[in-house]
Amino acid sequence: MKAVLTVIGKDKVGIIANVSNLLFEKDANILDISQTIMHEFFTMVMLVDLSHINISSKELTELLLEKGKELKVSIKMQHEDVFNSMHLV
Amino acid sequence: MNINQIMETVKMLDDEKLDIRTLTMGISLLDCCDSDGKRARARIYEKIMRLAGNLVKVGDDLALEYGVPIINKRISVTPISLIAGASKDENYVEYAIMLDKIANELGINFIGGFSALIHKGYTTGDHRLISSIPEAMRVTERVCSSVSVASSKVGINMDGVREMGKVIKEAARLTADRDGLGCAKIVVFANAVDDNPFMAGAFHGVGEPECTLNVGISGPGTVKVALEKVKGADFGVVAEVIKKTAFKITRMGQLVGMEAAKRLDVPFGIVDLSLAPTPAIGDSVARILEEMGLEVCGTHGTTCALAMLNDAVKKGGIMASGSVGGLSGAFIPVSEDEGMIEAVEKGALNIEKLEAMTCVCSVGLDMIAIPGDTSAETISAIIADECAIGMINNKTTATRLIPAPGKKVGDSVEFGGLLGRAPVMKVSEFSSNDFINRGGRIPAPIHSFKN
What we know:
The structure holds two protein chains of two kinds.
Chain A: E1 2-9, H1 15-25, E2 29-38, E3 41-49, H2 57-71, E4 73-79, H3 80-87
Antiparallel strand pairs in A: 1-3, 1-4, 2-3
Helix pairs in contact in A: 1-2
Chain B: H1 3-14, E1 20-27, H2 37-52, H3 55-66, E2 70-77, H4 80-84, H5 93-106, E3 110-117, H6 124-139, E4 143-151, E5 155-157, H7 158-174, E6 186-190, E7 211-217, H8 220-228, H9 235-264, E8 268-272, H10 285-291, H11 302-320, H12 338-346, H13 351-357, E9 365-371, H14 376-393, E10 397-404, E11 412-416, E12 420-423, H15 433-437, E13 441-442
Parallel strand pairs in B: 1-2, 2-3, 3-4, 4-6, 7-8, 9-10
Antiparallel strand pairs in B: 1-7, 4-5, 5-13, 6-10, 11-12
């Protein structure tokens, strides 16, 4: 399964490093990454392949939520189908 | 897909209160009939627990995986009058108690189907069920009741309309300690639908399969925010924006619903693409109408705005899903919509305007508190008016009125949670008694003879 990971918050050093390190530890493969500043907020979107992760996707979602709290940003991971179904006809 | 589209979805979910309002499992109880009521109830318990045991867990898992809040998990069942009618029981309150116990054990918030279909006439079971409704509403917490009293095909059962006025009064009296909360769980229908996932009017129709999963989506906040971006544009643009937004919302509902059905191993039923408000700020249908340019919901132009909203929502939703059903449109429950409550309190919205709005919305006079001393006949007459609107316009109309005990115009009643807060609204002080006491059946309208 592929998931879309979104990170929104105030920019600071190490957001990408922290998030990608956590994904690396859990064997999640980053397929695509884009980053921008939207309305003064740091906004990052990653497409992640979860086929080979060494924990459940539920656990990974929870770890990412915790990481978000630690970094004081909002991190969400959602099944890519949510976006595909909404935006692709 | 670009980053803007992804962020649009994230924003809808995080800031605009987009959610799946309900996953509702419809379960047929037709095979639970038994001449012994106790045995019938044991079968009902066994069947629902078996089929819906995982409903809450699947809903919660999906919410986390998809990042989409799923607010309610619910069950609708075959109208109990049909099941209990096979038994020798003369009072059906025990069936409601059993349904309540099941709802509690499963952790679902409502179970619908303590219902009877009497649009053309009563069976013995229907009589017994309807006379059990007030007590059933008093002793249960999560059971919802509905009675179909009219349809475009057969006309209006005015005996049923008369009786429902009394039932509502009695339910209010029995739950007077909770401001008449019992009445918030009783819906009187014209043109009731078999696959509605929304409460309090959900039941599993007799033409439905053994078990099915229906999904009700929401998202008034999302539509309002989308309209904020086209301030001053003409109605062609407004309609287009609503359609596109409804499309996106519906696609998400369909995705989650189908996945839930797969995991529960039951066929997927329908998406009900309704705009269902909640009392939370930013989740109001009234505010959408105001965004279109009305100073307050209820002023002149409101009916037109609502008609256009309802139509555009349907068009966007129908394109998005292969299986649309239920009520599908915009709901206007007063107590459950922060904008409606404010409009009533400002004096901009009254029951007459709401009645006009029910000609073009997807349901009817919903969650409206009226003075506690309103007579049963007046309540019946309000129901009759709604039935007439439904019957002649080939649409579903529902009436959910709360004659709040001891309250008068200017007071308000607080139900809490999704049911919200209702300001008590004025009803006509003139009598409809002789009209209601005629009884009988209003014949089928001329346009029903299409065959």
